[in-house]
Amino acid sequence: MKPDISVTFTGLKFTNPFLLSSAPPTESDSNIMRAFDAGWGGVVTKTIGLHPVTNVAGPKTKFLRSTLDGQLSMQKRPETALHSSWNWELISDKPLDWWIPKIAGIKKAYPDRMLIASIMAGSGNDKELAAWQTLAKACQDEGADAFELNLSCPHMDRKDMGSNIGKDQAQVSIVTEVVKEVATVPVWAKLTPSTTDIVEEAAAAFRGGADAIVSSNTFPSLPLIDPETLDFEMNVDGLVSSGGLGGPAILPQSLAKMSQLTNAFPDRAFSGIGGVSTFAHALNYMLLGCGTVQVCTAAMLDRAIGPNVIKTLLEGMQEFMAKRGYQSIEDFRGLRRGNVVVHSKIRRPEGKEYHGGHDAEGYAVGGRH
Ligand SMILES: Cc1cc2nc3c(=O)[nH]c(=O)nc-3n(C[C@H](O)[C@H](O)[C@H](O)COP(=O)(O)O)c2cc1C
């Protein structure tokens, strides 16, 4: 008998735990339906706002690659491996009115596949907060199965939008609560990794009623400067702003954030994102306690919606479970959550003890490091 790879996450039944995250692969109905045909268990739409955005006058995303001897560049060169994606793309450039019939159409064609609407508005005044409710009501009326609140877009100048909300615990709670007031479907909060202690913002989202936390969005970063031209490898008229890093480079960093979250809230639901392209990568998030795993960069590089990526993920999970005799994801979800501990709990050689720097053997009196 084949192992059962379906999962129930925030009360929703997914045929498998792998989702396309909110990004270019999910910015049209045709792409989303292709993704379901390819086998993705769920899709999070590109973030929908009330007002369409205008992107920069140039490429919105590029890929940084490394040669074997460590030369990093966005320029196409032979024999390189993917290091990361870098983007400064804003939310969907299509208005809510464009999305509404598309959501309805997708759900009509794929009633048993999970379609999560990523939504975003401001938080600076009542009108902006009401916009969250307008977006939520419109999407759920057309059949969206859940919401993902974009509290994490790193490119917003407005102090009450995107990751600027995600950095402010009070705003995280308020926005979540405002959406929960009208939501008839689960509400997931996608947090920014660029805060001191993501556990604090997650606690704020849970206080507001969030059903799950999603992490990570991209990490703040810059493109590299070309040593020949002295220009940033991505720029418009020589100028650049901080953008978001995704792909392989962020897998360990995003795992660290996730481990903090799942250890602080072992009974809550988490969706892991960041640097996943194989089942071995996704397994990390599951062993830390995630119930679903999302993918962006790897899918963008695989015929836009990742047909080969999802095939690899599904085959990998089935093989892994069959080999170990696991019946469902619950047999191994969270199995390594407790193995991430504070430094002083790690064994020292020859049975010596370390007291976390409090006693003389740590950062000793008079000692300098
Ligand atoms: C070009 C691009 C656009 C993105 N747009 C959104 C977006 O609209 N909303 C959102 O929540 N995340 C957005 N993301 C973030 C991704 O959903 C994901 O969190 C991030 O890329 C990390 O996953 P990865 O390492 O698989 O790429 C975007 C990422 C990229 C590369």
Task: Provide the succession of SSEs.
Answer: EEEHEEEEHEHEHHEHEEEHEHEHH
Percentage beta strand: 15-25%
Span from first to last CA? 58 Å
Amount of helix: 25-40%
Q: What profile does the largest beta sheet have?
A: 8 strands, parallel, barrel
Number of helices: 10
Total strands: the figure is 15
Mean pLDDT across all residues, rounded?
95
Main sheet: strand order: 3-4-8-9-10-11-14-15
Shape: globular
Task: List ligands, each type once.
Answer: flavin mononucleotide
Q: Which structural class do the helices and strands define?
A: alpha/beta
Radius of gyration: 21 Å
Uncertain ranges: none
Describe it.
By secondary structure, this protein is of the alpha/beta class. The protein contains 10 helices and 15 strands. An 8-stranded parallel β-barrel has the order 3-4-8-9-10-11-14-15, surrounded by 8 helices. The longest helix is centred in the C-terminal third of the chain and has 18 residues, at 307-324. The chain is globular. The structure holds flavin mononucleotide. Residues 21-24, 46-47, 60-61, 85, 87, 89, 91, 118, 150, 153, 190, 217-218, 246-247, 250, 273-276, 295-298 line the site of flavin mononucleotide. Flavin mononucleotide (FMN) is lined by residues 21-24, 46-47, 60-61, 85, 87, 89, 91, 118, 150, 153, 190, 217-218, 246-247, 250, 273-276, 295-298.
Secondary structure blueprint with pairings:
Blueprint: E1 7-9, E2 12-14, E3 18-20, H1 29-38, E4 42-44, E5 61-67, E6 72-73, E7 80-87, H2 96-109, E8 114-119, H3 126-141, E9 146-150, H4 163-166, H5 169-182, E10 187-190, H6 198-207, E11 212-215, E12 219-221, E13 243-246, H7 251-264, E14 269-273, H8 279-287, E15 292-295, H9 297-300, H10 307-324
Parallel strand pairs: 3-4, 3-15, 4-8, 8-9, 9-10, 10-11, 11-14, 14-15
Antiparallel strand pairs: 1-2, 5-6, 5-7, 7-13, 12-13
Helix pairs in contact: 3-5, 5-6, 8-10
Bound molecules: flavin mononucleotide.
